[in-house]
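Notes, p. 3: input format for complexes.
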Amino acid sequence: MDFQEVFGKPPETQASAPGRVNLLGEHTDYNDGFVLPTAIPQGTTVQLSFSSDAYGGLRQRQHHFYSENLNEQVSISDINHSPSGFASYIFGCIELLQKAGYTVPSLCVYVQSSVPMGSGLSSSAALEVATLRALRQLLNLPIDDVEIAQIAQQAEIQYAGVQCGIMDQMASSLADTEHILFLDTRTLERRVMPLPEKAEILVIDSGVPRTLASSGYNQRRAECEEAARSLGVKALRDITDVNLTKTLPEPLQRRARHVVTENNRVLEVLQGVTSERFGELMNASHASLRDDYEVSVPALDILVDILQKTEGVFGARLTGAGFGGASVALVRSGQSKGIATHVLEQYNQAGYNGQILVPALD
Ligand code: GLA
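Output follows (362 residues plus alpha-D-galactopyranose):
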């Protein structure tokens, strides 16, 4: 069903935003640290029109949201404050615009997405950013791309309950598929960098859905905040010498060690590195996420291990929050599909159901 079939009229405007894959700098953004994401070809499109509904004669707004992927329609009024699922992200964006002083009338919202869900490629950020872009167009809102990312992040925190950093929303709002976006998440200073030489990106889903992602995630964040407090700094970003983490009790010591070493890896890339060195840093990142940060799962370790041992792969690691989801690898240009076939053969023989996500298969 398209917009016309669902709502009985054509949309007035539409906007899209991509998902993202993070190459390096994992679990650093909520520590005020550094990240290196890039946009993926898959994206989310949001179509909008005004709705004439007023709720219960009280002149409350009533919105209608439809997800093509889920084939699900949700109607929400201003006084119904806690939708779940895809509706919570859209509702969060609308509510935050209202709180910022903009008037958002009753809306019909239609969502279609090609971003894989639950793989750590930020389908939620793509939905938030596409929603806000479409609203900016429809209502002529004076908000820029950074403000869109900031509102989108708040929608995720306040309405979806994940205490996330700002990487995903900044990547969806500002990155493209041809470059890496270096971002300092404290100052929001950024630099657009080319991909490492003669290399391309391969993303393979482990086929293991992310479990405990939000509770485990919020727990890691709390541990990092405790570590920063114990070390007397505003955030772990302020520690650059990993030896300083040795005074911390476990598991805070390992959590802090991951964040400090991961920030240093990103900063090394910023100085300019070869594809080989970039790959080594990705491998080190995976080991750190597995052993120190403990956000990997056996399936991802097996998948990453196969990737790392495959000819033509510079380096590989889990990407996103972890607890399941996808791997990212930096591979020799032109070889990603061949490498994926070889890796998936071995991985799926071990009883898993992996699949290639980037490059997108036609
Ligand atoms: C999720 C969050 C991001 C970031 C990553 C881990 O994607 O939304 O803010 O913390 O996990 O690097």
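Residues 196-358 form a domain with the Alpha-Beta Plaits fold (CATH 3.30.70.890).
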